[in-house]
Amino acid sequence: MFIKVMFGAGCSVLVNTSCRLVNLTAHLRQKAGLPPDATIALLAEDGNLVSLEEDLKEGASRAQTMGNSLLKERAIYVLVRIISKRERTWPPPAMSPYWRTWMTITQSWQGPD
């Protein structure tokens, strides 16, 4: 069974979910250029977030859980990186050159309190 996973700016990949979850997540991290320790999830078309890290069945180890036990066949998902408070930097590094401009514009629209 296959799913389509979208990530980045117009990037997508077909993924076979008939494999162990640990292999599936490693492959998605590699394709998206994420570090091996990044926490990821998949956002389904219906708005449900499927955690690939924590939604494991009781008593099953992460290495033995299969991807097709969590994901729907032939569905489209969006890859989401979960950033914990420890990892968060402010302002976001990718947006820092424009962050101050955006904040200034936003504050000017709000007007004086």
Topology:
Blueprint: E1 2-7, E2 11-16, H1 21-32, E3 39-44, E4 49-51, E5 76-82, H2 96-110
Parallel strand pairs: 1-5
Antiparallel strand pairs: 1-2, 3-4, 3-5
Structural commentary:
With 113 residues, the chain is α+β, with helices and mostly antiparallel strands. It has a single domain (2-87), classed as Roll (Ubiquitin-like (UB roll)). It contains 2 helices and 5 strands, in the order E-E-H-E-E-E-H. It has helices at residues 21-32, 96-110, and strands at 2-7, 11-16, 39-44, 49-51, 76-82. The chain has a 5-stranded mixed β-sheet, covered by helices on one side. The radius of gyration is 18 Å and the shape is globular. Residues 55-59, 96-100 and 102-111 have low confidence and may be disordered.
Descriptive terms for the model:
disordered C terminus; 113 residues
Order of helices and strands: EEHEEEH
Distance between the termini: 56 Å
Low-confidence stretches: 55-59, 96-100, 102-111
- What is the overall pLDDT average? 77
Strand order of the largest sheet: 2-1-5-3-4
Helix content: 10-25%
DSSP strand (E) fraction? 15-25%
SS elements, strand count: 5
Which sheet architecture does the biggest sheet show? 5 strands, mixed
CATH topology (level 3) name: Ubiquitin-like (UB roll)
Please write the CATH class name. Alpha Beta
- State the domain count: 1
Backbone structural class? alpha+beta
Question: What is shown here, in short?
Answer:
With 113 residues, this protein is of the alpha+beta class.
